[in-house]
Amino acid sequence: MSDFPLLFSPAKIGSLELKNRLIMPAMGTGMQNKDGTVSDRLYHYHQVRGAGGTGMITVEIAAVHPTTSGSTGLGIYDDKFIPGLKRLADVIHQGGAKACIQLWHAGRQTNSHDTGMPIIAPSAIPCPLCQEEPGVMDKKMILEIVDSYGNAAHRAKEAGFDCIELHGAHGYLIAQFMSAYSNKRTDDYGGSLENRARFALEIIADVRRKVGPDYPLLYRLSGEEKVEGGLTIEDNKKIAPMLVKAGVDCIHVSVGVYETLRYTVPPMDLDRAFNAWAAAEIKKIVDVPIVAVDRINDPYVAEEILKQGKADFIAVGRSLLTDPQWPNKIQNGQYEAMRHCIACNQGCVDRLLLEGKHASCILNPTCGREEEFSFGPAKVKKKVVVIGGGPAGLEAARIAKARGHEVVLFEASGELGGQWRLAGKPPRKYEIAADVDWLIESLYRSGLEVRLNTQATKDKVQAENPAVIILATGSIPTKPQVEGVDNPKVLLAPEVLEDPSKVGQKVVIVGGGATGLETAEFLGEMGKSVTVIEALEDVARTIGPARKYFLMGRLKEYQVELRVNTRLTKITEQGVEICCEANNFIPADNVVIAIGVTSVNDLLPELNSIAKVEVIGDAKEPRTAMNAFYEANQVARML
Fold first, then answer.
1. Buried b vs exposed e over 545-573: b needs ≥16 C-beta within 10 Å?
2. Which terminus of the chain faces fewer neighbouring Cβ atoms within 10 Å, N or C?
3. Which of 45, 77, 149, 172 is the catalytic position?
4. How high is the pLDDT of residue 443?
5. Percent of the chain topping pLDDT 70
């Protein structure tokens, strides 16, 4: 009997029946063409996910009006968008899923340099993040935007979408009217909750007039906005019945606004399914299906939410970036083959919002590159030697073996995982530790030959007669050139993560990057007295904003002292001497070094005489795990 009888049972949203309870929610990808039309990249992205076994795919935000157009997402405010949108709906249907599209207006949560025209909102209050004062919508503009939602819904129906979702969450325009946090109007659209709901209710009524009474309509709301003066769950328990009475068939309960985006796209720092309680509260009030969302990256967690009656459907987003096939895998009894999202936010949110690149996934670089990174059997089978069992080496070996190559992996130590294994040791990073286990188990299940405690040499590698060598020997921690650095009380961050029993009560950590701060958290949780010194003016520069927010909060809780613009000058038996502060000495039982790493690739010149060598990951250049997995994929798929 299936472990997931509810998750994979059919259910209805209005007149629409879904084959199971899994819904892929709308997620910004940055894959659309610059003019808001559907690109080939976006088409192939949805083609893969539509075939993954999910009951319904919700296409990302589609702008209902030119005042919210720009580079952010798709357009649906003109008939010119219909052919491309039809192409998307069709390919989702071909994969066996139902197709939904999210109708959206940013309101104040955008900028005029992106839209090319003044931005609008219910009140002249800038978004704290976007920081541009919007123009106040008069009655004429309100009616124009209401009309644009109905017209957009009609276009969605014409394009072949099975339903639409109104984006009334995350602080966008509908939510801006709904929330006293952003609506200070004194007319019929402000003041009381009923007045603030008027804009949403008029939109729903206009949509219903233009698509008919039986066309399914979903509404996404933030159960809590998590800002002072913002919508609360009690507010939404009053709002939800109004929405249903107006014609909404399903409510999708999310969380947050732009200022609290750390909850909207929650990192690993938050518990799995942390927001399911809000879905359960709304479900008590209305008799339409409820969708739960946020950090539900495991089918057992999803099944339990359904079992407890907290929701009727489960929205699974980033997990389908990591492994688009996981619904099919679970249905086929292949739980062990499913790769879990680790909620690092690096490949999806941070890459999109901070780097301005299309969304992808740290564990699945194929995401957004579905045509570029084809994954099929190798035409010519080769002997491949992989040197190094860290993340880059494990991933390259796994994919090369899956493609049919004969692969041997050399690992100098007695354990696989390298720095990825160490990355899973600090608090709240258990999902990274689980991914290490997944990688290792995948290798052994495949029958790939792994040689632990085997230092690669030219002779050993040559004896394998490889056609290709993949050098993934990673990096080693860098030591500062200061007096006392070789003192036995000085430890490297990896040593501490491996065996914290070596560390005394008072600890100074040199380096305020990700490794230094996570080591500080690791020790702080144990009750150690920790001081971090960083030569630059800020810490955690490579950590995304959501993770940084929660990490800094825990460091404060553990009373970790952070000293920036502080340079190490000397290590003594009693502690460390520092530069640029009046108090230039910090006592310490141990000093932990976390200032960066240096590539290990000394074997490269000798290997070049044996076969073609591909250098990947930190062995090529010290960077992030995202680079390691990307290069592993790139090389292994080209073999």
1. ebbbbbbbebbeebebebbeebbbeebee
2. N
3. 172
4. 95
5. 99
